Amino acid sequence: MKINYLFPNKFKKIGWFILFPSLILGLAVLILEYEPIFLDVNLPTVFIDDFEFSSSKGLFGFVNNNILNEIFGILIIISSLFVAFSKEKLEDEYISKIRLESLVWAVYVNYGILLFSFLFIFDFSFLWVMIFNMFTVLLFFIIRFNWQISKL
Asked: Which residues cross the membrane (predicted)?
């Protein structure tokens, strides 16, 4: 069976190499509000002020923003994609089955947590849930897939 939607196996090593430091530093920056001096990246960025156009403020604006959160978010997503969707050294039908089951399981768990959050978490705490929800599908998949492979 020809699998053409997976990255080559070498991407998995690159993904792990980028994922661990960016995940640890990204969580430190987000949760602990830790901003290392050597990574102070303040740039003028474009932002959307309001979704409703008002003549006094306008729709877009400029602000100096530390884009460290955005950099770590991009690194976590790209490295997670590399880890999750890289071929194994021996990719066969059983590995494909484990991959599919792990992906389905990760989506179910992720949306189960999201449904629970819709019902019981409100206000600014819900924003935190949504921020973490961007990453959890891939992270749940990586955890479950690697756990299943290690049991094999």
From this structure: 14-32, 67-86, 98-120, 126-147
Q: How far apart are CA 23 and CA 38, in angstroms?
A: 18
pLDDT in tens, 20-30: 999 998 888 87
Q: Quick one: average pLDDT of 109-115?
A: 95
| C-alpha 38, offset from chain centre | 24
How many residues can be counted in the chain? 152
Angle, vertex CA 2, rays to CA 102 and CA 146, nearest 5: 25
Beta bridge partners of 45: 63
58 closest CA partner among 40, 46, 70: 46
| Cβ neighbours of residue 131 closer than 8 Å, sequence gap 6 or more | 30
Q: Which two structure tokens, joined as six digits, stand for 105?
A: 């399981």
The 3-class secondary structure across 98-147, one letter per residue, is HHHHHHHHHHHHHHHHHHHHHHHCCHHHHHHHHHHHHHHHHHHHHHHHHH
> Where do the structural domains in the chain lie, given as residue ranges?
1-87, 92-152
Specify which residues 47 forms β-bridges with: 61
* Eight-class DSSP state of 85: T
